[in-house]
Amino acid sequence: MAFHRAYAFTDACLDNIRMLTCMSDSLSTQPPTTPDANAHAQSSANATQDTATVATRPTPLVALLVLTFACSLGTGSMWNALPFITEHDFHFTKSQNLALAIMEAVVYIAAAFNCGRIVKSLRGHLSPRGVIQATLWAQALACPLPLFLGVPGIILTAFVTSVVGAIMWASIESFLSAGRHGRALRASIGLFNVTWTTAVAVAFYIMAPLFLTDQSRIAILAIGPCCFIAALCLRWFPKIPAPPSDAPHATFIPAVYRPLRSASRFLIPTSYLLIGALLPLLPYVIARLEIIPVLATPVAATWLTMRVITITGMWRLHFWHGRWSTLAVGAALMTVGFTAAVLANSLMMLALGLMAFGAGQAILYYASLYYALSVGHGDVGDAGTFEALVGGGYLLGPIASLAGVAMGGGVNVVWCVLAVAGLASLLALREWWRWRRNPPRDNQPHSALLH
After folding, report:
1. Of 168, 374, 437, 448, which sits most exposed with the smallest number of CB within 10 A?
2. In the chain, where are the structural domains located?
3. CATH architecture of the domain covering 60-438
4. CA distance 117 to 183
5. Cα–Cα separations (whole angstroms), residue 120 to 68, 291, 372
6. 245-260, pLDDT tens digit by residue?
């Protein structure tokens, strides 16, 4: 019900904005049409024909959220649970799990970084909506491979889902933000984040009974039906995302958002660096504490549950917008939580560490995505850059962990990971210092920034 109320409120706001915009346009004086203008219009007829199917309204939020939940439920049982499956079913060592995570990250970065060019190159054959549909079918076809091919199947499925997943999520984020601004954008991003983080956490809980058997890989099959449900939602998607609004109050963003986006572009890979370092090691931390296998994924889901709670709070509360302290608090919580979780000597210490870790990651992710989509106005290339930064963190984290394991493990892993994370954080600190020395000026009153 909360989703439906939020959607109705968001849609009503957008209708009011469009009504005012149309009234303003109808009252404005239009310049007379000239022969040159007619010639230009005639020569550009073919170009405008391609954009005739561009949506005049944002993608319906309910359809987008159902698709997001289904996709996240499937990928949650793949990307986040994969280290547990490989450790439990195939007895991967720490080094093997970290190597698999590195492979996933490399292909994810490559696909996400080139997402904008890939979608544009396919424009003559597939619309942006068609690109999402193609990625869903590719994942559905890849998910049964581990059941038939064993370890090679795991590697192939991880490769395929990483490549098409990067393109899929960048495209979904483009549809999410396109045509939405200000309050409507904040509401949609909040619901989007609550939806996908909830789905990932749910996936961890419902797959727990599978670890009573030697066939936990069956969880990967969930990708298939989830992709089918997501594909059904695409019938409510426009072929091409809606263009940005022309309303000045809708397109204006606070000047501080740009340096915050720059800083968060360094912090988001840092946060996923810590995730990429922690997830492949978490099954071995849980085993060291002698937690029974059936409780492994529910315990691991502690940080996912805390992430949902924190993101829900950020969605409902707006005081953090435009504040540098938000990024600092998120980074501190992640650092403390990662250290406590890796070095935990009791279930209580592990749980507290994971809770701090989840809260910090939620803060950094939400803020980074918010600034990226606010400044980028729904461009798939900008969303692809965001996803590439996520992949960069997933790459550096396992590499740093692997170095720590090679040095003897334990506290060495913590020092190696935090050293790499510290270097990335210094780049974010540089953006703050530049802003403090020469803060940009907003050219509209503060009240205009909140709507």
Report:
1. 437
2. 60-438
3. Up-down Bundle (1.20)
4. 30
5. 23, 49, 20
6. 544 444 557 888 888 9
